[in-house]
């Protein structure tokens, strides 16, 4: 499980259009499905379903008190030459505050998880060994990408399932909550 924000469909479509060339040139990369694109605020790991009611209550209260954030997808990069991402710009201070508050809310529920610092990004694709040059080239193709500003209006509790095929992961919303400033 993890807690995330998701760009609206038109912002995703804008980025997908910028990736059209990379999709065609690097079909062997493991591209994330557009409907699965998200910004992870807090990764919780594998948890029993019994914690979901606790998280629902805590996250609902948190969302009701937090304003929406103006964000945009911007540029591209990579982690360890194996993971391609798009950057996040906009109200980054607010994004970090929200991530801290999510972690505090989860801890207050008595749920243990490995804490990781927030590195705002949207994961696009993964490469296997020997595909580092493709990841670097795909990241370079996004250097000038600057998406439109959009409002992050909903906080999502997301579950992941292993899909068919090696390394295939599918995400599903367990629940989402409108942030106080969301329309």
UniProtKB/TrEMBL annotation:
It comes from the Bacteria. A motif (HXTX 2) lies at residues 121-124. It holds the Pfam family 2_5_RNA_ligase2. It catalyses: a 3'-end 2',3'-cyclophospho-ribonucleotide-RNA + H2O = a 3'-end 2'-phospho-ribonucleotide-RNA + H(+). A motif (HXTX 1) lies at residues 38-41. GO terms for molecular function: 2',3'-cyclic-nucleotide 3'-phosphodiesterase activity; RNA 2',3'-cyclic 3'-phosphodiesterase activity. The active site is at 38 (proton donor), 121 (proton acceptor). Its EC number is 3.1.4.58. Keywords: Hydrolase. The keyword Hydrolase applies. It is an enzyme of class 3 (hydrolase). Belongs to the 2H phosphoesterase superfamily. ThpR family. Hydrolyzes RNA 2',3'-cyclic phosphodiester to an RNA 2'-phosphomonoester. PANTHER family: RNA 2',3'-CYCLIC PHOSPHODIESTERASE. NCBIfam families: 2_5_ligase. This is RNA 2',3'-cyclic phosphodiesterase. It comes from Streptacidiphilus pinicola. The lineage of its organism: Bacteria, Bacillati, Actinomycetota, Actinomycetes, Kitasatosporales. The gene is thpR.
């Amino acid at each position: 499980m993890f807690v995330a924000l998701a760009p609206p469909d038109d912002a995703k479509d804008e980025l997908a259009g910028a990736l059209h060339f990379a999709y065609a040139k690097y079909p062997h990369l493991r591209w994330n499905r557009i409907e699965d694109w998200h910004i992870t605020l807090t990764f919780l790991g594998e948890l029993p379903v019994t914690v979901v009611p606790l998280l629902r209550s805590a996250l609902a209260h948190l969302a009701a008190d937090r304003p929406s954030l103006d964000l945009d997808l911007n540029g591209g990069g990579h982690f360890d030459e194996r993971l391609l991402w798009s950057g996040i710009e906009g109200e980054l201070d607010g994004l970090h505050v929200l991530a801290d508050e999510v972690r505090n809310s989860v801890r207050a529920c008595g749920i243990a998880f490995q804490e990781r610092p927030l590195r705002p990004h949207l994961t696009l694709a993964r490469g296997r060994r020997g595909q580092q040059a493709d990841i670097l080239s795909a990241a370079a193709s996004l250097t000038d990408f600057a998406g439109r500003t959009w409002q992050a209006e909903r906080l999502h509790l997301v579950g992941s399932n292993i899909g068919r095929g090696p390394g295939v992961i599918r995400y599903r919303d367990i629940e989402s909550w409108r942030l106080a400033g969301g329309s």
